[in-house]
Amino acid sequence: MTETTGLVVGDDGRARPQWAAHDPLLRTYYDTEWGMPVRDEQGLFERLSLEAFQSGLSWATILRKRSAFREAFAGFDPDAVARFDEADTARLLADARIVRNRAKIAATIGNAQATVSLRDRGGLAELIWSFQPRETPRPRTVADVPTQSDESRALARALRKEGFRFVGPTTMFALMEALGLVDTHLLGSHRRGTSGVWDT
């Protein structure tokens, strides 16, 4: 590991942050998905939901359960999840393959309903992407990566106003990183600037 930056050069010669350097699942996620633009409603709802479930847990835990989450939540189709009832909640609470947290399950169902209701006002994608900042961070070290921003705080407020839950400013900054609204790949990472949203 490069002590001054936190980057780790893999056996393929590519530099990645420590969190994505060793676990094959996290490495693949970092190399192929994290930070790449997502603009479709269903994809955004899935990522919003998974970020909420991740709160207090490791991202690796959520990634390992992702296929089970998709099966349990109807592929994160907002229309389908918005119709979930008490029987569905009981089913989800009994499903050991996912994170069985009543508040997070209820929030996901409520967030699906909020996603559907947003359609006549531009939709979830338009709302989230409207908070893309004019500039992106340029972190040289892990310590330089922020955990919140003015935009993530404003996005959290806007989503709460629309009825979304588990959308705090730190969670929303993580969502913005995952979706490519900001590029927090470390300078020196092989993924820096690869999203097509930001030049460098």
Question: Top keywords for this entry?
Answer:
single chain, 200 residues, mainly alpha, Endonuclease III, domain 1, two-stranded antiparallel sheet
Can you characterise this structure?
With 200 residues, the protein is mostly helical. It has a domain at 41-179: Endonuclease III, domain 1. The chain has 10 helices and 2 strands. It has helices spanning 24-32, 41-54, 59-64, 66-72, 78-82, 86-93, 102-117, 123-129, 150-161, 169-179; strands at 7-9, 15-17. Helix 2 (41-54) packs antiparallel against helix 7, helix 2 (41-54) packs across helix 10 (169-179) and helix 9 (150-161) packs across helix 10 (169-179).
Would you spell out the secondary-structure blueprint of this structure?
Blueprint (H helix, E strand, L loop, with lengths): L6 E3 L5 E3 L6 H9 L8 H14 L4 H6 L1 H7 L5 H5 L3 H8 L8 H16 L5 H7 L20 H12 L7 H11 L21
Antiparallel strand pairs: 1-2
Helix pairs in contact: 2-7, 2-10, 9-10
* Strands ordered across the widest β-sheet: 1-2
Q: Any idea what the shape is?
A: globular
Number of strands: 2
**What is the helix tally?**
10
Overall pLDDT metric? 95
User: Which CATH architecture of the domain at 41-179 would you pick?
Assistant: Orthogonal Bundle
> Ranges with pLDDT <50 over ≥5 residues?
none
SSE run:
EEHHHHHHHHHH
Instruction: Kindly report the CATH topology of the domain at 41-179.
Output: Endonuclease III, domain 1
Estimated radius of gyration: 17 Å
Derived from helix and strand composition plus strand pairing, the structural class reads mainly alpha
For the biggest sheet, the summary is: 2 strands, antiparallel
